[in-house]
Amino acid sequence: MTFLTLTLPSRATPKRRPIQFIVWLALFFSVLTHAATPEQIESIQKAAEAHVLNTIDQPTGGEIVAKAGNIDSRMHATDCPSGLETSASTTRNTSSNITVLVQCKADEWRLYVPVRVSISLPLVTATRPLARGNLVTQGDVTMKMIEQHRFRRQAFTTFDQVVGSKLKRNVNVGDVIERNDVCVVCRNEKVIIKAVKSGMTISTKGTALSDGSNGEQVRVKNDKSQRIIEGIVTGVAEITVHF
């Protein structure tokens, strides 16, 4: 609570002092009357947080946490009879801070409230130290919620994208496994090329010319014909080509 201090002039006459005291009391109680109550402040903060949660797209399998900043208790607020209205200039999922306008048109007051936004996504992480050259097994990985602003590189969101792949570098326990850390199909290594046409499948051997994860397109050389083609990684050391 903020207190107003009014110093009476030393030259004030005894007759004027009661009047000045009354003015001081009027100012003091005016501040108390218009200052926001803890309940009103909480209501404003919740309105700002709700606006962010209702306007930002929910990431698949992810979580959004919105936390309104502190509000000065000296601000003017009322129990808005028409209900609080909210708006913001941005609703981008990439914003970590969003300023929300909370206003009561009926009582003619408004307030800009900063809201901290934290978006977490489920990403594949290592359960133990993993060495370069090893194949990733189901027990080597787990899913962990990671804040989006802390991890902006390419990562994996499902186990089948990682399990069975080969590590290209060492990974520490708890680390998010990145696309550059593994290869399901590895450059210069032998692969099986599956040629699919009209429901028929013919398999032959080839050599991968680039690294790739499940679902990615890579270049591969047919060892028999020496022809270079492009296919989709469909499994460990397996590339499928549709004709």
TrEMBL record:
<dbReference type="Pfam" id="PF13144">
    <property type="entry name" value="ChapFlgA"/>
</dbReference>
<dbReference type="GO" id="GO:0044780">
    <property type="term" value="P:bacterial-type flagellum assembly"/>
</dbReference>
<protein>
    <recommendedName>
        <fullName>Flagella basal body P-ring formation protein FlgA</fullName>
    </recommendedName>
</protein>
<dbReference type="Pfam" id="PF17656">
    <property type="entry name" value="ChapFlgA_N"/>
</dbReference>
<comment type="function">
    <text>Involved in the assembly process of the P-ring formation. It may associate with FlgF on the rod constituting a structure essential for the P-ring assembly or may act as a modulator protein for the P-ring assembly.</text>
</comment>
<dbReference type="InterPro" id="IPR017585">
    <property type="entry name" value="SAF_FlgA"/>
</dbReference>
<keyword id="KW-0282">Flagellum</keyword>
<keyword id="KW-0969">Cilium</keyword>
<dbReference type="InterPro" id="IPR039246">
    <property type="entry name" value="Flagellar_FlgA"/>
</dbReference>
<keyword id="KW-0966">Cell projection</keyword>
<keyword id="KW-1005">Bacterial flagellum biogenesis</keyword>
<dbReference type="GO" id="GO:0042597">
    <property type="term" value="C:periplasmic space"/>
</dbReference>
<dbReference type="InterPro" id="IPR013974">
    <property type="entry name" value="SAF"/>
</dbReference>
<comment type="similarity">
    <text>Belongs to the FlgA family.</text>
</comment>
<dbReference type="InterPro" id="IPR041231">
    <property type="entry name" value="FlgA_N"/>
</dbReference>
<feature type="domain" description="SAF">
    <location>
        <begin position="121"/>
        <end position="183"/>
    </location>
</feature>
<keyword id="KW-0574">Periplasm</keyword>
<keyword id="KW-0732">Signal</keyword>
